[in-house]
What we know:
The complex is a heterodimer.
Chain A lengths: L1 H11 L1 H12 L3 E4 L6 H6 L3 E4 L20 H11 L8 E5 L3 H13 L4 E5 L8 H22 L5 H27 L6 H10 L5 H19 L8 E7 L6 H8 L2 E7 L4 H4 L9 H11 L12 H12 L4 E7 L3 H16 L3 E7 L6 H14 L1
Parallel strand pairs in A: 1-2, 1-3, 3-4, 5-6, 5-7, 7-8
Helix pairs in contact in A: 1-2, 1-8, 4-5, 6-12, 7-8, 7-9, 10-15, 13-14
Chain B lengths: L2 H13 L3 H17 L8 E4 L6 H5 L3 E3 L1 H10 L3 H10 L8 H12 L12 E5 L5 H13 L3 E4 L10 H22 L5 H23 L10 H7 L1 H5 L4 H20 L9 E6 L7 H10 L2 E6 L17 H10 L7 H14 L4 E7 L3 H4 L2 H12 L3 E6 L9 H19 L2
Parallel strand pairs in B: 1-2, 1-3, 3-4, 5-6, 5-7, 7-8
Helix pairs in contact in B: 2-12, 4-6, 5-6, 6-7, 8-14, 9-12, 15-17
Amino acid sequence: MKVLTEFYDIVTNPYSYARKWKTESGGKILATFCSYAPEEIIYASGALPFRIFGTSENITLADSHLQSYCCSLVRGSLEEALAGRLNFLDGTVFPHTCDSIQRLSDIWRINAGFPLHFDVILPVKLNTPNAGEYFQDVLKKFLKDIETALHIEIDNDKLIEAVKLYNNIREKTGAIYRLKSDYPEIISGRDLHTVIKAGMLMDRKDYLLKLDDLLELLDDKKENSQKSSKKRIMLAGGICNHPDIYTLLEDSGAAVIWDDLCTGTRFTEGIIEEKADPLAAITKRYLDRAVCPAKHSGLFVRGERLVKLAKEHNAAGVIFLFLKFCDPHCFDYPYLKSYLDKEGIRNMLLEIEEQPQSEGQLKTRFETFIDML
Amino acid sequence: MTHTNLKNESRRERRKIKSVKKMKEIMTKYYIDAKTARQNRKKVAWITSGGPVEPLIAMDIIPVYPENHGAMIGANKMGIDLCQKSEEMGYSRDICSYARADIACSPIKGGPIGGLPEPDMLVCSNNICGTVMKWYEVQARFYGVPLFILDTPFIHSNFSDEAKKYVVSQMKEYVSFLEGTTGKKMDHDRLKEVSRLAIEGQNLWQEVLDTTMNKPSPMTAFDAFFHLALIVTLRGTEAVIDYYTGLRDEMKERINEGISMVANERYRLLWDNLPVWYKTRWLSEKFASHQACLVADTYTSAWCSVVGLLDVDNVLESMALAYSNVYLNISVDKMFDTLKFMINKYDIDGLVMHSNRSCKPYSLGQYDLQKMVLKELDIPTLIIEADMVDERVFSESQIETRIEAFMETLDNKYRR
């Protein structure tokens, strides 16, 4: 599929894409680190929200700023910045999430040397009216800050346009996810991962057009797609930066049919109400979306959601996928595991280190797990 | 015993802080009260070390500090065993060792005091880290009790009006939460009085810490780590005021009598981060053997550094502001301002930083702070890679070598 090749090109060489985009459009590029970055506002400002995923290179420069007991996303991203590989960026948007990202914001601001830096200090608690009000206040402040920094004005029409575009994107990606769940072999896990990841990097209008093309192709394919005999697996955790995992799982007789990942459905889900005040509606979407463990919206919501998703998508097993040193996910693991165990849903934990496990080792672990399902 | 030995012995005797005994009595009584709270029909709230305790005291709720529990576990060298138990429960070895050890104590009533008294409610402020929230969520599920989270937006550059409004609104929610849990109304006059006592206690604690400005210093940061327990656990009570008044006077007396904690003090050092609880004696002796005195630290001063923001005539609002401005809730550059202030105030010759695997908000950023200190203040620095409770990551020989090298750097720099 040609459209997939385009997504792959961007995801494999995101920085070349960004440079080209910048030259051609003359626009600004603002980096983001997580799915709480209010992309709708960044988009409405005319800038390109561009997500950073760490590094594939060895970490040397970041070593003199960050200890080894800090996750590879934080260390790797700083490495990319210090090595000058992100020199196309105009700035960075740091929404408040975990302790490590919070400190990265300081270290980044002091050392990385980008002209713009925004700390979007969102509430950590999301389930009270006061927290909701503060959330909206923060978005409003961010909007003003970005207007001042870029010397622009973001009127309601621009915000509404952004909301509609993001809704459109989220509807399309949601439809692709559902197709994958219904016909696990209609698109490979790696391909779907690439499609979603491209949506965190590329020009969003362009992305929507390409999603349309892809959906059309997939809809045609649906006719000939058989129900799959592969074991149905769900991934749960933080970011997935290793597309090989999907291929290894497929080679071992499984298919990833759904996920609860920051680079997956936690990013893609949640429609924003279009008739309401845009900032209030955007706020509501962030408050209601599936919560990251660095935030709080109740003591049991994450466990209940995980079980609900696994049942809804008929998952035979769940693989927890955490970055090593990710405190919020590590804290939730025993509780989430007990929720799955209670329901008899098999699960395993895979911690991703800076240097991932060898393919052989991983394959053996996956095969053993899949055999038990 | 030879004559010299006797003389050394009596010098050592003279250096011992007499208040220690009283402190142990107060803490024992406090834990007995907390453990018998149920029998006495009192409620127990677990609260984070940076949380607003004044409303609890004002409502006769006994505050209990899991972090203090963590420190006790570390000091009693029970950390490895309990951390391992938590790992068997599924908790990663990479998360905070206070949390790991405390979580492991709950189901088995383990640890130095047979487990903390069971909570009726949990109060968590994320002004010190996001970790406490995760830890308290675990405990709220385990004990099935309500959890109140005081969410204090981080201060990268300034504390915005929006953030202030948000925290003030939560202070009001906090009072309603306590009223709901206890079925009693808050007595705001009592709260005002408790706040006054808390302010007085913090000022006294600062006075105790300030006695180390004297050369030689009458106490070290290792002593401060010990005497800290009261300002953390009983802030807002008379007991704190009595005790710190006594301790301050004892320190002043030592100054008058020329008693120093480190014999022949040559170097004055600043400690950054939490103590290495299971190695305080070893570290203290190691530095003392080089006539180096850790005269101050960024940790124990955190319980009095924002006292200036508190106002008894505006209790809830001023508490919102003060509790949001604590050392761990501010950016690296703001932390540097504090370091700089302390280095000048205590006339510091060198900085010792504990890079603490358990505490990311305290430790990430230390390398940059180190660079700033070297560049702007030109004083030698030492980084010790360790953990506050989990002894498995403490490499004694490596740390010893680094301390020796650091002392040599000081010798070369100051030629004392």
